[in-house]
Structure formats: C-alpha cells, structure tokens
Design a protein that fits this description.
heterodimer; A: mainly alpha; MetI-like fold; 2 domains; 11 helices; B: mainly alpha; two-stranded antiparallel sheet; 12 helices; 2 strands
Chain lengths: ~290, ~280
C-alpha cells in the first residue's frame, strides 16, 4: 500500500457523500408518499360533496350534471366484501392446515408457498382476461357475482400467504403441547393457533380487502358497469376504480374534477384500512404466547 | 381444504393451458416468431405484430427500475445500518400505505403531477414538443409503485445478513462504510438482484396506472419522450370489445399469455436466486 492515510481519507470522504445520498433516498421515499396524498386530496377535496357520496348518477351525470358516485362506492364495497369473505372462508382453513397438520411435511409446504408467491405475482389483468374468457366460454354475462369470483381467486393467494407469514413463526412447542394434552390438530388450529396469530389474520383480511377494493384490471371485463346500485349478484356493478378511470377520460372539466374527488374517496378508504391494520396488530398482540 | 390446496396448485398451470388453448387460433395461422417480431398492428387486416408492445413494456419497466432500484438500495442501507431504529418504525407504515394505494390513484397522480412535469422538461430541457404522455411518465409512475415492494425485500434482506460477518470485518479494522461495501453488499448481492427481479416482474404486469399516463400509441418507441403501448394496456383497452374482428380475441389472449410467461419467468428466476442465498447464509 503506497499511501494508507490517503486511502483512508478517500474512503471517509466517500462515506460522507454516500451518507448524504442515502439519507436523501430515504426522505424521498417518505416524501413521495406525502406528495401523492397531498396532490390527490388538494385536487379532489374541493369538488367533493355530500351529493357525490350519497347519490347515484342522475340524467346527464357524464356531461357534468348532477348526481354522485354512490353506485361505484356501493359496488366496490359489495365486491370487496364478497371477495374477501369468499377468500377468507377458503383461505383461512388452508393457512391453518399448512401450519398444523402439514407442518411435518416441510418440503411440501415450502413448495406450496412457492406456488402461492408465484400466484401472488401474476398480474391482475391476466386474472381478469382469463376470467372473462372463461365467462365467454360458459356464456355468462358480466355481473357482480362473476367479479366477486375473479377477485376472490386473485386475492386468495395473498390472503393465505399473509396469514401463513404470521403463523409460520409461531413456537413449534405450542402444537406439541396441545397435542400431548389430547387436543386434535383441528382443535389446535382453531382454538390455539388462531388466537396466537390473530393479528396476522386480521392484517391478512384487511390487506386482501384493500387489494380487492383498489384493483381495476381484474374487474374491468368481469363486473361490467352500471349507474345503479346492484340489487342482486346477477346484476352488473360499478366499481370505484373504474368509475375514476371512466370519468378521467371525459373531455368535460367538471367530470374530470369529479374523478379527482372520487380518487380522494378511494385514497381515504385505503388510508383507513392501513390505519386499522396497524392499530389491530398492535392491540391484538397481547393474546399471543411469546417464545 | 385439500380441494382448495389442489385447486391452487393447478391454478397456474390451468391459466397457462387455458390461455394457450384460447390463443391457439392465432398461433395456428402465424408462427410464434412472426408474432413477437412483427411490427405492424392492424387487427382488421389480420396483422398482429407484438414487437411495439413488448418493447414498450420492456422500456417502461427498465425506466421504472432505473428510478426505483438505486433509490431503494440506498434507502435500505440507510435504514438498516445508519438511521436510528425510529426510522424503521416510520418507514414501515409508509411502505404499507404506498403498497396499498390503488393503481388508479397512482394513475391520477401521474396525470396531475408527472405528465405536466415531463412535458415541461421535454420542452425546455430537450426542445422536443411532447404531450407528457410518454414512456418516461409511465416509467416514473411505475417506479414509485414498485418502491414499497423492492424496499421491503431489501430491508428484510439486509437485516438477515449475519451480524458476525459485520463484526468480523469491523474487528479487522475495516470502517463501517468499507464493511458495508465489501462485505454486506457482496454477501447480499444475489438477494439484491432477485429483489430487483421481483420488482421487475411486478412492474411488468401493472396495468391501470401505466395505461393512464403512457399514451397508448401502437408504434415502436424511439426515445423516452415517445408514447408507448405496453402489453397490459393493450389487453385492458381492447379486450371486451373485440367480438366483431376475427382472431382479435385470440391475439389479446396471446398478449396475456406472453405477459404471464414473462412474469412467471422473472418471478421464478428471482425466487430461486433468493432461496439459494437463504440456504448459503444459514
């Protein structure tokens, strides 16, 4: 080494520069979130009114006349609730099964996790297009039920994987202790493991709900669009993301303003879900046994 | 329960086979090579060239990665090795909310903030008139969308690098930055590459946000200020109203098939890499 002191000084200078860049990067990430929420709310809130939230589109709505987006809000809530419920009913036992009875078969469970991650990564537009082509095959019309089914398949891997993530780190002795006391694996799953992993389960449900309500590509062809609140599962339904999308393409400024307002409604719903998820995982944690 | 497990196990294969079957009308009359290298898109005249869409998808995704990759890497190093532990508690909800914001909202933000910005930069900085609905806008919006995804993986990754490695290097007299550069980053390199790969595959399939800002012109883009037309946008814009034109339906499902294959390939490669890394670090 020719000049160790010089090299050291160069390294120190390099570190100082890199530290500034790194700090900037972190603040940029936080700042971007702030800017996004600020931009949406600043453009959306001025044109938001009670009429928009509590009325369905009236005549001439898409030319800037009166009415609201209640059809889309209700449609989105129905759709997300239905899909989340369906995914929960099917996914919850699967996640429990993976972490109780199947726990011994490590290779299988890990392989299954791999498949679930793969499914999680498949774009929602592929689910949407595939779902629609199946619907054409069976000659089914676009409806709320079709949308719920497609979205449920799309959030099912997310639901299972998110629950599983919370369950797989639960203490191994917990199951052995329960079984040695005469509990069945099923009893263990529903009474011990579920309680132990309650925060993870709630987070998984909220995460899936957020995905279901925000995704547009999977419902684009499958749920259709309507100005009315759906009264049965067989009717088409409007959804909030699509309502935003369609209004944005309008040449009329008032209609575009309403799209911004609708976007701030959707952002608000997502923020509430995130906060709920945070709060619940903090609150529900006291039931868990630590290892 | 067992039924649902089997259902999920065969679902990827099912979608793949379904798309293969449904797009067979077009793969029968054109060769695979013809389809992916063709540059002309005229469905009414049975000309289906997917090259403009494939290239647009690649460009948009690469731009996104150029923006998000270094940003996430620097930020993750900062959070894991330099910042106070408070920062981790601040960044976690930020990541959650960024990941939760629907793509349509990102699209609205792109139209309100990024599109005018890009248009102004193109006009004043590069003297090329542009509407702002360009590959660059799509790339930036997409970059922001994959930040939470990539950052989350990187933070987990850096936290899983064995402390002993760090300490051994420090005890030999290396400085903190030197240790991170030569030991931590080297150790975590496969993980970093696979995090980027996963970000790439996530970006590839993103539909609505990109569709809203990228311009949607079916031509081969020549620069970042040209509009593009990525594969997911092609499907979203045209599927549902293609009944009257023969083979159009099959062509769009072929686009979905291409998308699926590319995404699964990136996902598979990245996950294998990360699994190998996890095995070696144990």
């Amino acid at each position: 080494m020719k000049n160790p002191a010089g090299k050291l000084r160069r390294l120190q200078r390099e570190e100082a520069v890199i530290r500034i860049i790194m700090r900037l990067a972190t603040y940029t990430v936080i700042g971007v979130l702030g800017i996004i929420i600020f931009t949406i709310l600043r453009r959306g809130l001025p044109s938001l009114s009670w009429e928009m939230i509590f009325r369905t589109p009236q005549g001439g709505f898409y030319f800037g006349k009166e009415g609201g987006i209640l059809n889309a809000i209700a449609g989105s809530l129905y759709l997300a609730t239905g899909a989340t419920l369906l995914a929960f009913v099917t996914g919850y036992p699967v996640a429990l099964f993976m972490n109780s009875t199947l726990r011994r078969h490590k290779r299988f469970v890990n392989g299954f996790r791999f498949i679930l991650d793969l499914l999680w990564g498949i774009p929602s537009i592929v689910y949407g297009a595939f779902g629609f082509s199946v619907m054409i095959f069976f000659r089914v019309q676009a409806s709320l039920l079709a949308g719920i089914l497609v979205v449920a398949v799309f959030v099912l891997p997310i639901m299972i994987r998110a629950m599983d993530e919370g369950m797989k780190n639960s203490p191994a002795g917990l199951m052995e202790a329960s079984l040695s006391l005469g509990m069945t694996p099923t009893g263990f799953s529903f009474r011990i493991l579920s309680r132990q992993c309650l925060p993870g389960i709630v987070t998984a449900v909220l995460l899936s709900f957020g995905r279901a309500i925000g995704d547009a590509a999977s419902v684009l062809f499958t749920t259709g669009f309507t100005d009315y609140i759906p009264r049965s599962l067989a009717e088409p339904a409007a959804t909030l993301p699509l309502s935003i999308f369609f209004q944005l393409t309008s040449p009329i400024p008032e209609v575009r303003e309403r799209a911004y307002a609708a976007a701030s409604v959707l952002t608000f719903i997502i923020l509430v879900i995130s906060i709920l998820a945070r709060l619940s995982s903090a609150k529900l944690n006291h039931n868990a046994i630590k290892n | 329960m067992v039924f649902w497990i089997i259902f999920l196990l065969i679902l990827p294969l099912g979608i793949l086979c379904g798309l293969l079957f449904r797009s067979s009308a077009i793969t029968g009359s054109h060769t695979f090579f013809q389809l992916i290298t063709g540059t002309v898109w005229k469905p009414t005249q049975q000309e289906f060239g997917f090259l403009p869409f494939i290239l647009s998808s690649l460009y948009v995704t690469l731009i996104a990665l150029v923006f998000a990759g270094p940003l996430c890497l620097f930020s993750a190093i900062h959070i894991c090795f330099y910042a106070k532990s408070m920062m981790l508690r601040v960044i976690q909800p930020v990541i959650d909310i960024l990941a939760g914001i629907p793509s349509v909202v990102y699209g609205v933000w792109g139209i309100l903030a990024i599109v005018p910005l890009v248009s102004r930069v193109a006009k004043h900085g590069f003297h090329t008139p542009s509407t702002g609905y360009t590959l660059l806008s799509g790339g930036i919006v997409l970059g922001v969308m994959i930040i939470p995804f990539v950052l989350n993986i990187l933070i987990d990754l850096f936290r899983s690098v064995p402390k002993e490695l760090h300490e051994a290097s420090l005890s030999l007299g290396a400085g903190k930055w030197y240790t991170i550069k030569r030991v931590v980053l080297k150790k975590a390199m496969p993980g970093i590459i696979s995090a980027m790969g996963l970000g790439l595959s996530r970006a590839f399939g993103e539909t609505m946000a990109v569709l809203m800002v990228v311009g949607n012109v079916a031509q081969i883009p020549r620069g970042i200020f040209d509009p593009g037309y990525p594969l997911p946008a092609l499907i979203a814009n045209n599927y549902g109203e293609m009944m009257s034109i023969p083979q159009y339906d099959a062509a769009l499902l072929f686009a979905a098939l291409l998308l699926l294959i590319l995404v699964i390939f990136f996902n598979f490669a990245s996950r294998l890499l990360i699994m190998r890394y996890e095995k070696s670090s144990r």
